[in-house]
């Protein structure tokens, strides 16, 4: 008898199985929408796919009368700039902190308690403080994402440094490696794949903090648009924006995964 644990789907079957839940969800939505619209043609909770397509076309391909911009792409560009800058800053800070804490004992004693404490602070709780101190412009929004992402990534990388075989450190020092050579030749090469993994795992949180910041104080952005139209129950706007945010996060995850696979093939797990 062949066990389930040994039954591996082929490539085509695996793709079909992966797509099947999405088709089922779409089917359920269409049926539920038709049932609600049959009872009330003006229902806004579950608009038809045709209504969603029309609204999306107006937002993505027609200029707004007030601003003269195509709102969908203007919002996308505003959000991507913020989250891109925040993730770049977070990755840089996390890498620097992790190397210092993981390699230099005095730096570990100085910075590790502070990092562990900051990582426990709920980022959304400090959002009002950021708006007061940094203002309502881009700096406060980027800072929120950095505060939410960088400490967690830094802790993860620091743990990776602590997991490095002690023999590598001792052998490098025996061969005359200085602290900088040890960092550059032994520690950093093994941290790059872990950094990519940590950023992938933090992607959802980064989008959450971005949308929260845009919802409270912004004039552009995907989160701003969602919370702007919610007062009108405009689900035909909200749903495409939510799907688009999800697609952007998936594309970013795919790009990072592809980078890791090609740039650090030696770190890929055996399958």
Strands, helices and their partners?
Elements: H1 11-39, H2 49-61, H3 71-103, H4 105-119, H5 127-134, H6 138-163, H7 166-174, H8 179-216, H9 222-229, H10 235-263
Helix pairs in contact: 2-10, 3-4, 3-6, 3-8, 3-9, 4-6, 5-6, 6-8, 8-9, 8-10, 9-10
Describe the model.
The protein starts with 10 loop residues before the first helix and ends in an 8-residue tail after the last helix. Helix 4 packs across helix 6, helix 8 packs parallel to helix 9 (222-229) and helix 9 packs antiparallel against helix 10 (235-263). It contains 10 helices and no strands. The protein folds into 2 domains: 9-58, no CATH class; 71-263, MetI-like (MetI-like fold), CATH 1.10.3720. The protein is mainly alpha-helical. It is globular, with a radius of gyration of 24 Å. It is 77% helix and 0% strand. The mean pLDDT is 89.
**Span from first to last CA?**
24 Å
How many helices in DSSP terms?
A: 10
Number-wise, the strands total: 0
CATH class type of the largest domain: Mainly Alpha
CATH architecture of the largest domain: Orthogonal Bundle
How many distinct domains?
2
User: Considering DSSP H and I runs of 4 or more, what fraction of the residues is helical?
Assistant: over 70%
Taking Cα atoms only, what radius of gyration do you get, to the nearest Å?
24 Å
Outline? globular
Order of helices and strands: HHHHHHHHHH
- Percent strand: under 5%
């Amino acid at each position: 008898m062949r066990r389930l644990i040994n039954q591996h789907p082929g490539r085509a079957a695996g793709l079909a199985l992966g797509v099947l839940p999405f088709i089922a969800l779409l089917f359920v939505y269409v049926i539920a929408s038709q049932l609600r619209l049959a009872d009330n043609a003006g229902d806004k909770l579950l608009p038809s796919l045709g209504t969603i397509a029309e609204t999306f076309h107006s937002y993505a391909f027609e200029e707004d009368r007030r601003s003269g911009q195509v709102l969908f792409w203007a919002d996308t560009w505003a959000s991507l700039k913020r989250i891109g800058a925040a993730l770049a800053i977070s990755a840089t800070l996390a890498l620097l902190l992790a190397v210092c804490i993981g390699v230099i004992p005095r730096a570990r004693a100085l910075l590790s308690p502070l990092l562990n404490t900051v990582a426990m602070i709920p980022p959304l709780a400090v959002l009002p403080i950021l708006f007061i101190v940094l203002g309502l412009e881009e700096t406060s929004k980027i800072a929120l994402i950095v505060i939410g992402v960088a400490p967690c990534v830094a802790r993860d990388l620091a743990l990776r440094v602590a997991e490095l075989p002690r023999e590598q450190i001792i052998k490098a020092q025996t061969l005359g490696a200085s602290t900088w050579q040890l960092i550059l030749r032994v520690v950093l090469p093994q941290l790059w794949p872990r950094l990519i993994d940590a950023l992938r795992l933090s992607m959802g949180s980064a989008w959450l903090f971005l949308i929260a910041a845009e919802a409270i104080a912004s004039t552009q952005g995907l989160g701003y648009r969602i919370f702007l139209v919610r007062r009108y129950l405009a689900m035909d706007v909200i749903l495409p924006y939510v799907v688009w945010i999800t697609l952007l996060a998936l594309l970013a995850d795919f790009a990072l995964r592809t980078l890791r696979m090609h740039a650090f093939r030696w770190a890929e797990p055996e399958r």
